[in-house]
TrEMBL record:
Gene Ontology terms: biological process: DNA repair; DNA-templated DNA replication; error-prone translesion synthesis; SOS response
MF term (GO), any: DNA-directed DNA polymerase activity
Gene this chain is encoded by: dinB
Annotated organism of origin: Muriicola jejuensis
Occurrences of domain UmuC (ranges): 10-190
Annotated CDD domains: PolY_Pol_IV_kappa (cd03586)
Cofactor: record remark: Binds 2 magnesium ions per subunit.
Protein name: DNA polymerase IV
């Protein structure tokens, strides 16, 4: 049987330890030292860790307390997001020298579709190499890249030779690569789904590929179709230059834990105001509001409500968040509050009319 996927040459560029690398670039005295960008050893969370810190097990989203225990020599640096945005903008300008089809995922990574490109270069691998060289020469940072026939495989490939490397998965290598891939690397397979797959004897792409569509649908519902296709190299998602995010959010970590709902209402007002600005900038609105609460013991709780109408106004966002706050008693004092919006207006998941080619096609990358 022949399986098909769209003809594309996709590059996924991922900056190496971006926030930490920017700090080491701007402060040479930090080079070669374990640093964490974040709130510090007593409060806050690690936003990024240098490779020197990662050797000790320090990772992003880890509490500063735990990070300091793992690496006693760890240097905490306050984040400077304006600077990171400035550097990110310079890097993206390099991308646009090669293609208009650039889809940023965050400040430090993006997809590029170079099937047709401004350089007139038929080799996506050479383009990726040139982009990485220019980033290093013009910005002073290293980047890694993955190159393949679709976004999923390119993203997985970009992690293989990190830091400061790249990996190309040629069309004829796609199926063997996916068959050997750990099941946890596949889109949509989180911790809970991975455990379920283990119980069903699915540990690699090959194990998943051996299962019938009926079997995967029976155990994983609509996601079964996705698993059935992606393990065969079928991933139809295009590189979208004006990508609509799945959600928008804002949150605050407090210097002192809050126990009074009066103070929380005041903080939520500021968060709602910031979120409303982001919604206006994105030119969208949303139906689902989620309140995020992190307690002083680091346990996390979320409360959500889907409205029958779309909202973008600060007052409506705040009113819904307060309803969620008051719907049940708090478990403890609070160290972080956040509001996020999802179910955004204008999300387009259509993939009709895409040109396809069988996986056996020789398409030089």
């Amino acid at each position: 049987m022949s399986f098909e996927f769209p003809i594309r040459k996709i590059i996924h560029v991922d900056m190496d330890a971006f926030y930490a690398s920017v700090e080491q670039l701007d402060h040479p005295e930090l080079k070669g030292k374990p640093i964490a960008v974040g709130g510090g050893a007593k409060r806050g969370v690690v936003a990024a860790a240098s490779y020197e810190a990662r050797k000790f097990g320090v990772r992003s989203a880890m509490s500063g307390v735990l990070a300091a225990k793992l690496c006693p020599e760890l240097i905490f640096v306050k984040p400077r997001f304006d600077r990171y945005k400035e550097i990110s903008s310079r890097i993206r300008s390099i991308f646009f020298d090669y293609t208009d089809k650039v889809e940023p995922l965050s400040l430090d990574e993006a997809y590029l579709d170079v099937t047709s490109n401004m350089a007139g270069n038929p080799s996506a691998s050479l383009i990726a190499s040139e982009i990485r060289r220019r980033i290093f020469e013009e910005v002073g940072l290293t980047a890694s890249a993955g190159i393949s026939v679709n976004k999923f495989i390119a993203k997985v490939a970009s992690d293989i030779n990190k830091p400061n490397g790249q990996k190309t998965i040629e069309p004829e290598e796609v199926i063997p690569f996916l068959e050997d891939l750990d099941i946890r690397k596949f889109y949509g397979v989180g911790k809970v789904t991975a455990e379920k797959m283990y119980q069903l004897g699915i540990f690699t792409g090959k194990d998943m590929k051996d299962k019938s569509l009926e079997f995967l649908e029976e155990h994983f519902g609509k996601s079964g179709i996705h698993y059935y296709e992606v393990v065969r190299g079928i991933h139809r998602s295009e590189v979208r230059s004006h990508r609509i995010p799945k959600s928008l959010g804002a949150e605050r970590t407090f210097s002192e834990n809050l126990s009074s709902e009066v103070f929380m209402k005041d903080r939520l007002g500021l968060i709602a105001e910031e979120l409303a600005r982001r919604v206006a900038k994105a030119g969208t609105s949303a139906r689902t509001v989620t309140l995020k609460i992190k307690y002083s013991d680091f346990t996390l709780q979320t409360r959500s409500r889907t409205l029958p109408y779309f909202i973008s106004d600060k007052d409506l966002i705040l009113d819904t968040a307060l309803d969620l706050l008051y719907q049940q008693p708090l478990d403890n004092s609070v160290r972080l509050l956040g509001i996020s919006l999802s179910n955004l207006r204008g999300k387009d998941a259509s993939h009709e009319g895409e040109k396809s080619v069988s996986v056996q096609l020789r398409l030089e990358l």
